[in-house]
Amino acid sequence: xxxxxxxxxxIAFLIIAFLKKYRLSKKILIGTWIIYHTFVVxxxxxxxxxxxxxxxxxxxxxxxxxxxRLFISCWWRGLISWQYMTVQIFGNILMTIPFxxxxxxxxKDKIKTFYISMALLFPLLIEWFQLLLGILTKTMYRxxxxxxxxxxxxxxxxxxxxxxxxxxxxxxxxxT
Length: 176
Description:
Blueprint: H1 2-20, H2 24-45, E1 60-61, H3 66-76, H4 82-106, H5 112-137, E2 144-145, H6 146-165, H7 168-175
Parallel strand pairs: 1-2
Helix pairs in contact: 1-2, 2-4, 3-4, 4-6, 5-6
């Protein structure tokens, strides 16, 4: 479903970009933004599980680093694989790095507090929508976890750091 909606959005954007004769840099940037968000939606909300037996024991986790410590502890005791632990922890960081890179290209000349606010708002919205989805489907397969927000925030900050280190030539191409 996410890829269908994302694909339709991407095709609509291509038509608009062609009709309005957008610059190549704008086409690449906005097209990438649409594809990126399609993947984020696919990873964070799907599959849509409607089996009420898959309810999480704790649909809301507000203790910072509790889930991260739990994953590491379970891996250490051999209860989960290192691959699963790595995906759960580093996947949350890696997922939001592109957001941190693309945000300054899309919103030029904003103050740093804007980027920090967006770095917090984006993961918070993901978690709130996961909680809302769990409530609406009565499954709580996806949970609201403060660790995800912290790890996603870290990913956005890393992405912004990568943007800051990019050569001026790349920044100029996307800003003209």
